[in-house]
Amino acid sequence: MIELRVNGETHQLDIDPQMPLLWALREHVGLTGTKYGCGIGQCGACTVHLGGAAVRSCSVPVSAAADQDITTIEGLADGPRGAVGSAVQQAWQDLDVVQCGFCQSGQIMQATALLATDPAPDDAAIDTNMTGNICRCATYARIRRAIHKAAQALG
Predict the structure, then answer these.
(1) Can you give the residue range of the structural domain that contains 102?
(2) What is the pLDDT of residue 69?
(3) Which residues sit opposite 61 in a β-bridge?
(4) pTM score, two decimals?
(5) Statement to judge: residues 140 and 95 lie in one domain
(6) Average pLDDT over all residues of the chain
(7) How many domains does the chain contain in total?
(8) Nearest to 145 by CA among 76, 81, 82, 91
(9) Do residues 91 and 139 share a domain?
(10) What is the CATH number of the domain that holds 41?
(11) What are phi and psi of 55, to 5 degrees?
């Protein structure tokens, strides 16, 4: 049995301890906002917060996530970074960032982690911290504007 604390709720799961956290979240906890992209931790679609850090859930075994707080896109606004997450989500809506939407939950999770540690990032900091999150629709300029907008709203 593996115990996972996801979005403030505890889940007892009878699963392989080496199963990627992504699949435990999607298939066993039922939270499908975290997306499968590449499966090798390079695209960022599966980004969640683990113990407050943005991580690629496709590359983290559930055994490494046990006894840590896990926040997914579904719990972002209500989690420990709720104000930041809400500001980021609102900026995404205000600036119509999303095109296909597939990568956006990972983008929002990564942006929230960035703003939690750097409340006023410049373009270089945004580019450095968001580089590993791939958007096939190339909404990068809108993503950057939304991060600045969220930072202003929080500031």
Answers:
(1) 82-154
(2) 97
(3) 20
(4) 0.96
(5) yes
(6) 96
(7) 2
(8) 91
(9) yes
(10) 3.10.20.30
(11) -135, 160
